[in-house]
Amino acid sequence: MAKMTLEELRKLRESTQQQIKKRDTEGKQAQIIVGMGTCGIAAGAKDTLDAFISELDSHGMGGDVLIRQTGCMGLCQNEPTVEVVMKDMPTVIYGRVDPATAKEIVEKHLMKKELLNDRILDRPSGDILKN
Asked: Which numeric CATH code is attached to 28-124?
């Protein structure tokens, strides 16, 4: 086995700490929950998940947003489905989320706090939202 230099060890430690920070649930601004049931995976949910990770990293938000996977959300005809939970915004479920839409969710919903109304499948009624 090859020996590592001190600099290589430091880079490995930094990389590992970044990965741990991404998995930590404390202090996150938002959660992105990707439906990864059989129907979601068949519809491209893995590519969608990868797009979210890549897009968040490119904006330096990888440690601020928790990305999770869940099973089937029961909305098979609209897969891939993604639930976005963010403080001071309604929780919404987006449908037919391809990698381009994932980028749009990061840029509009997470960064500008704007909903993508044309992709929303479900959100709370206006009468139960707190203004």
From this structure: 3.40.30.10
Three-state SS letters, 75-113: CHHHCCCEEEEECCCCCEEECCCCHHHHHHHHHHHHHHC
Look up the pTM and report it: 0.78
- Given pLDDT bands bounded at 50, 70 and 90, which one contains residue 131? very low
Helices (H), the chain: 6-23, 38-42, 45-58, 99-104, 111-112
Task: Parse the chain into domains and list their residue ranges.
Answer: 28-124
Cβ-based neighbour number of residue 58 at 10 Å: 11
Region of residue 96 (left: phi > 0; alpha: psi -120 to 50; beta: else): left
C-beta separation of 41 from 9 below 8 A: no
- The answer to whether the CB of 120 falls within 8 A of the CB of 78 is no
Q: What are phi and psi of 21, to 5 degrees?
A: -60, -40
- Paired tokens of 90: 């309604």
* Sign of the alpha-carbon torsion through 21, 67, 65, 58: positive
Q: What is the mean pLDDT of residues 33-37?
A: 94
